[in-house]
Structures are given as C-alpha cells and as structure tokens.
Design goal:
The complex is a heterodimer of chains A (304) and B (312). By secondary structure, chain A is mostly helical. Chain A has helices spanning 3-11, 17-20, 22-25, 27-34, 36-53, 55-58, 95-130, 132-146, 150-161, 165-192, 195-202, 207-243, 255-262, 271-298. The radius of gyration of chain B is 24 Å and the shape is globular. The chains are: A mainly alpha (304), B mainly alpha (312).
Chain lengths: 304, 312
Amino acid sequence: MTLAEASTVAAAPAVPPEDAAPPRRKSWFRRLLRDKAAVAAMTVLGIIIFGAIFAPLLATHDPYVNSRSVMTPPVWQAGGDPAHLLGTDGQGRDIFSRILYGSRLTLLIGLISVGIGGFIGSMIGLLSAFYTRLDAWLMRLMDMMLSFPAILLGLALVAVMGQGAVPVIIALAVSSIPDCARISRGIAVGVMKMEFIEAGRAVGLSDRDLFRKYLLRNCISSIMIFISLRFGQVILIGAALSFLGLGARPPMAELGMMASQGRDYLLFAPHIAVIPSVVIFIIVLCANVAGDALRDVLDPRLQA
Amino acid sequence: MISTITDRLLLSIPVLFGVLLFGFLLLQLVPGDPAQVVAGPMAAPDVVEAIRVQMGLDQPMIYQFWAYLERMAQGDMGRSMISNKAVTEELWSAIGPTVELMVACLIWSVPLGIAMGTLAAVLRGSIIDRVIMGLSVAGVSLPIFFIGLLAVQYFGVLWFQLPFIGRGGPLWSVDGLMHLILPAVSLGAIMIGPVARMTRSSVLEVLKLDHVRTARAKGLTETQVILRHGLRNALIPVVTLIGLQAGYLLGGAVVTETIFSWPGIGRLTVGAILSSDFTVAQGAILVFALAFIIINLIVDVLYSLLDPRVRR
C-alpha cells in the first residue's frame, strides 16, 4: 500500500481503501508542488541541511579558532571584511563557519530526538489502540508524562547528568512521547473500527500480522506528518535549553548557544546574537510551513 | 460540574505522586554523595558517616522515599546547598514574580490572539487573513530568546529606554509596572500565534453549524452572530489549547526570566542547576510541575463552564 492510499484510509474511514485510492495516488506530490510557500520553505530547508551536512567543505574558517579581528560586522555593513561573510564573534571566530557547524548540531539534536520520541510515542499509541485493555493505563501514563513540559524535563536531566547534548536529546525525545502517543492513538482507533480489521481477525491472522500489516501500514503516513510538525517545536526547545547554557558545551558550535554568547555583545555587535537566532527562526519557519502544507495535502483531517 | 472537578482532582493524585517520585529520584541520581556534599569536602569520614545516618541515607530506598514524602507534606524541602536558606523560603519569594509575569503576559496576548483569529476567520481568504496567518506562523517559529533580545535592543535601548533588568518593585508602583512591560511583551509574543491559529480554525468550524445559520436567519447583525453565537462556542478548543500550551509558556518563562533577570522560579531553577544547588533545583522543578497541574485543573473547570455538555 502506498503512502497516498494509506492516508486516504485514515482520512476517510467510511470509504473502503480500494475505491478511494486511485485518483489521489499520483496527485499529492504535484499538489504539494503547487503550493509556492511550501516549495520555497522546502528549498530553503534543503539548502540549510546541505550546508550543515557539508559544513567541513563549505566553511571558510575553522569554527573553533579565535582570530584578532573581533566583532567584525557582516560584509553588507560598514566595516565588514569580505573574508568573514557574516562577520566574527566576540572571540574573533568566523560566524559563517560557526553557523554551518552550529546548524549541524542543532538539526541533529532535533532529528534524533524527534525520531526516538516519535517512534516510542507512536508505538505506545498504536499498542493502546490495538490492545484496548492496555489503553486506560497507557493513556494515564501519558497524562502523567504530559505534566512534565520539555523544558522542565531538560532542566531536571541536565541537573542529574550535567550539561551536554545527550540530556537535551533525551529530554526532547521523552517529552515528544506523550503527544505522539495521543495523536497516533487517535488515528489508530479510527483505523481499528474499520471492517478490514474485523475481516483480518475473521480469517485468523495473528495479532502480529494484524498489527503490522493492517494497523501500522494504515496509520503510518498520518503519524509521520504529525511527527514532522513536531520537528520545529523540538528545535525551538533545544535551542532554548542551549541558550540557557544547559545544552551543548562551549567550544562546540550550536545555534542557541551562539545566540546566548552574542547576548553579551548585543549593544555593540548585535549581529553576533541576531544571525544565529535568525537561522533558527528560518529553520523552524520552513519546517512548520512545509509540515503544514504536507498535512493539508496528505491528511486534511489532522488540521484540528 | 462538581463531579468533573472531583474527577480531575482524583486524577491529579497519581500525577502528583509521579511528580514527587520524580523529585525524589532527581535527588538520588544527582552526582556525588549527598552526605559528603553537606559535610564539605574536608570532613572526616566518621563525620560524613554520622551525617549519612542523620539524613537517613543508610536506610532502604522505600524508607527514604517515605521520609521524603513526610517532609514534603510538612512543607520541608531542605536547605539550599549554596545560600543555606530554606528551599521553601527561596521558592516562596520567587513564585510571586513568576505569577505576575504569567498574568501580565496572558492578559494581553490571549485577547489579542482571539481577536486576530476571529478577524482572520471572518475575513477568510482576504489579504488580512493571510497577513494574520503569516504573522502567527512566524510567531510560532520565533525562538523566545530572540524576541527577548530584540525587545532589549529596540524597546530597551534604542527606541524607548524601557527598563529591562530585574523587577522594579511592587506591581502598584510605576517602576514595578515599567519593569514588567518588556518581559510580559516578549513572553506574550509566543502565545499569540498558537491562540490566533486555533481561534481561526475553531471559529470557521462553528460558523458552519446550524445554530449560526438560524441566528442569521432570525435577522441578527453579523457582529452579533459572530460574537454571541460563533465566538462563544469557538472558545472551547481555544481554552483547551491554552492548557496544553501551559508547559510551553512555563518554558518560555524560564528563558524570559533569564534574559530580563526577572527574579522568578525560572531564573531560580536555571541558576540552581548551573551552580549545582540540587535541593533548590528539585524544589523549583516540583513547583513547576505543580503549576502545570494546577493550570490544567483550572482549564478543565473553565472548559466545563463554557461547554455544558461536559458537565454531565
């Protein structure tokens, strides 16, 4: 079953999958391309991801080495130096190169934590829809986890484990679990009510097959969309933790941390704090716009 | 109505227990030996041992947890490892400023968000709708510290010279109010986007319903239809959203308080963690979790006030 078919099933539970799928199968990607904002967002995000992956090749300077030209403004401002495209920070490090390396870490933290949290969360959601006996227990557990907001969990974990990227990733992953679990449970409960599940049971499929081939495949695309919408939020929280000095440790470049270091120079050299903040903003904005568009195209029912 | 509230209260008991267990484990997992920390690095081994017995650290975990619960019930959270003040005292002096900040932030951002969302829904498809929705997506994507830094630079230094360091005094004094403006504006900015988006989709949903058509049919003006029949029903999901955003808001408060040196719980927590003051950190984290539970309890009550169907 393709992605489009699966989403049709989740979107219109009353219609049997065979009848509804064909007209939508090819068009969703084309419809996505028609949304200019989404295309622009995906392009920009693609460029940033490209820059992050190939940071060692693209960087013009070593991101960790100080130089004598401290607080040089970016090229387009008076006093800018063409050697430092985005200027230098308070310790004379090249901001352009640090941004490349910083986006690497920021994106990686977001990706890993959304991946882990989304996987565990959606498994919990699917299981609690599948085994109704577990439902009440698992959902109460999720309610409990929900009362620990991500930033709080991050603070607590950093208190225990010390500063670093690992506690931040754990906190972001764990705090993504309850949201993902609730959403995927909602989606899965809808699928579980459908006749083909009943039919699968009737022909004597094992729970394992019923779960994997019937439930999971019909839910996966909707769940993936939700997880992609979560990505932006996770990046923001991760950056906030780094900004507070609780994330990645200093010589490492991380966008939130760079903004926080720039805070001390805000009045004389605002670009040191502003540039990394703007990059975070662009990443999150693009992720949100693209995620919204993807959701509208693939599964309009998730809009609520 | 009353049964809803009792239900919610009963439901918060296991949550509260979980929160306390979490706080307890936090103190257990902290690196280093607590007895050694209390005794100081130069203490003789027998002194450390005596303190260990005195603190009950030689007892089994279950017993220690019970003792911890007993202390919590008596409002004893221990003493700060840095200032040696009672943790409850430190927390107590920080709660006021945080509540002040939260209220000041919600008081302007929620009504504005609802107004923007309603406007966008009513003028659906127009330029105004697109601008409002664009602004709210941008608002949702802005890092909170960026808003704070911009506020400091533009409103604090370049344009208006508004104060941006610390709290100016009690709320009823001019100085107190002036100091509150920038933190409240920055924190509120992150709430507008989600509230406006939710209001818009919720109003659009409600305007399709039969009772709105009836209201139009009986000749009410469009404003009356929207305000009395549309918005009131549309507010239910918005209230829920505010409850769900409570965690986000608390997180935002941590960052905002740090940027503006606002003497609240958030800054206390971050400071305690960075200086390894674990007793204070643990207490502050408990207060945060408790605040989250209380906010959601209030939201549930509001919810049942707005939606009679829930009361049953």
